[in-house]
Amino acid sequence: MVRFTAGLIVPVSLLVAEFLWPESRFIAFALSAGLVVAALTGSCLMGRILSRMPRNKVTASPTARSAIASIPVATREL
What we know:
This protein is mostly helical. It is built from four helices and no strands. It has helices spanning 2-19, 25-41, 45-51, 64-69. Helix 1 (2-19) packs antiparallel against helix 2. The chain starts with a helix and ends in a 9-residue tail after the last helix.
């Protein structure tokens, strides 16, 4: 998903460079260079950075009981 998003940003930044802000072509260059490095080395630095973010940490797979227990309970009648 990370490579797809980066690949999508490249043509968008090129379109922006063509019609609105010429300096955005450097965004396209930096992302495409990162994609080339990721393809040659087999590792994606952006993916590694994103995987270390707190939201992407999973301690264990949830059980049915813990999933049901995490559902909020309404405090008053609707």
